[in-house]
Amino acid sequence: MGNGIRKLVERGVPENTPQNIIDKAHAEFLRYYSVHCADSTQAYAGIAEALAALKAAGHRVAVVSNKNDAEVHSLVDTFFPNLLDAAAGVTPEVRPKPAPDMVLRVLKALGSDKSEAVYIGDSEVDLQTAVNANLPCVSVLWGFRERAFLQERGATCFIERPEELTELFGERA
Length: 173
Known about the structure:
Shape: globular
Radius of gyration: 17 Å
Largest sheet: 3 strands, parallel
Number of strands: 5
């Protein structure tokens, strides 16, 4: 849903649900999802190939997700083995997107600074995360939101296919 598991649970319970019930529902969701995070999950077509091409061109690539950190790493290992240089998800110490925390964490892990980074995402949460991290944003059109929706929220750079990533960024000097 874009704003993390906690927000998903809060949106999924009836209005005025007591906090202790929300907390129990959240804990149960986390327990279940830790075992089943890859159920009915698959990578978008062409993503693994695009990541491999970016790495071959000398780029470092990372993922930030509003899933919990353990599940992010599990999914990366399952769907993108050896294709990412860093990954970060939500932990008790790291706020979910649109806070810039995870972006700053992966930049540090990569030994990079903002001048070397571009944020790529598919939602309004990603757009706001890029703004909050002070990074340019490329919006992809194969994901969560459509062009008009993203444009209304300030998106200006779009790509329609994963292979456009390598066309856009080319070889790293």
